[in-house]
Design goal:
The chain is mainly α. It has helices spanning 8-30, 33-49, 59-78, 92-95, 101-113, 116-126, 132-139, 143-165; strands spanning 2-3, 54-55.
């Protein structure tokens, strides 16, 4: 896919269509509502001011790649992991049949313990249902490595969840 610089109307449409997905992805990566908002805004600012054509499989892939790179830049600057805010505004209806609030908190804490690359791969697969090829492209790794990252993340997450039950 090749897209040139957006017009105001197309930019507005892109923002409405993808801003929530970008925000959720960043929120799951960093666990901080304010940072997720800042990074999401920066992603769309870069989209708006970009002079280059967008060359990825989808616009969403392009935006998530920018979001992850901005998150990593911020993380490297801070040289620390930010604490994961457990009050990230989950819709109670979404989880009432699936898990209790306590289980969601355990899951978020376990996600925080995963290495960033594995966490990102798992979130891209679970939340956005991206193919392994797209995950590899987004993370800059081969497709086989993307499969392995998701597999390892699932195993590690299961272990962490089991350990936190005790």
């Amino acid at each position: 896919m090749s897209v040139s610089r957006p017009t105001p109307a197309s930019f507005d449409e892109m923002y409405r269509k993808y801003s929530r997905d970008v925000f959720q992805f960043v929120l799951y990566l960093c666990g901080d509502w304010a940072h997720a908002e800042d990074i999401t805004a920066e992603v769309f600012l870069r989209l708006w001011t970009s002079e280059a054509e967008i060359r990825t499989a989808t616009l969403k892939s392009y935006l998530l790649t920018i979001a992850r790179n901005l998150y990593l830049e911020q993380w490297r600057r801070e040289k620390r992991k930010s604490p994961l805010d457990m009050d990230v505004g989950f819709d109670a209806k979404q989880f009432e049949d699936v898990a209790s609030r306590q289980e969601v908190e355990r899951m978020m804490a376990a996600l925080k313990e995963l290495p960033e690359l594995e966490r990102a791969a798992l979130l891209l697969r679970a939340e956005d249902e991206h193919s392994y090829a797209v995950i590899g492209e987004l993370l800059g790794i081969p497709e086989a490595a993307a499969r392995m990252k998701v597999f390892r993340a699932r195993l590690r997450l299961g272990e962490l969840m089991e350990r936190s039950k005790v």
